[in-house]
UniProtKB/TrEMBL annotation:
PROSITE patterns, per the entry: HTH_MARR_2
InterPro entries, A to Z: HTH_MarR-typ, MarR/SlyA-like, WH-like_DNA-bd_sf, WH_DNA-bd_sf
Domain HTH marR-type positions: 3-137
SUPFAM superfamilies, per the entry: Winged helix' DNA-binding domain (SSF46785)
A Pfam family matched in the record: MarR_2
Species for this entry: Microbulbifer elongatus
Top-rank taxon, per record: Bacteria
Protein name: MarR family transcriptional regulator
Span of the signal peptide: none
Length: 147
């Protein structure tokens, strides 16, 4: 397979996946952009989340993440609490409403994944997971100077 075909296929897959996920989110009337969804997921999964850790995890500018976090706070999906380990930062925690929204988001992701993989066997899905994990690892080690 040529590099351009691989690139084109990956681009189309990500575009269709994100489009379908947005459709599922809209169908469930959650009204959250993908960046907000990713931030909320990160906060729900890590009880020691800070604005800095979310920015690093998402590989986004801290100012952009700060705007997203302010919107999540305004929507009462997350809250800030003092960080007992570092007085200069605050921990980000999901609210009860935030956890409920995350449950809906996870259902939307599962529905999207189900549609995307409906004609694939368990073996094909396992191979895909292995191959994509290796590709991510290749790019990660390369960007960290391990060329």
């Amino acid at each position: 397979m040529s590099e351009s075909t691989l690139s084109d296929n990956l681009h189309r897959l990500m575009h269709r996946y994100r489009s379908r996920l947005r459709e599922e989110v809209a169908r469930r009337d959650l009204g959250l952009p993908i960046t907000h969804i990713r931030a909320l997921k990160g906060i729900c999964r890590n009880p020691h989340s800070t604005a800095q850790s979310i920015a690093q995890r998402m590989q986004r500018d801290k100012a952009q993440i700060t705007r997203v976090l302010k919107e999540l706070i305004a929507e009462q999906l997350i809250e800030k609490r003092p960080n007992p380990d570092d007085g200069r930062s605050q921990l980000l925690l999901p609210t009860e409403r935030g956890r409920a929204v995350l449950a809906d988001l996870m259902a939307a992701e599962q529905e999207t994944a189900k549609a995307m993989t409906r004609s694939l066997s368990a073996n094909e899905l396992e191979q895909f997971a292995d191959l994509t994990a290796r590709m991510v690892s290749n790019l990660t080690s390369e960007s960290e100077g391990g060329r």
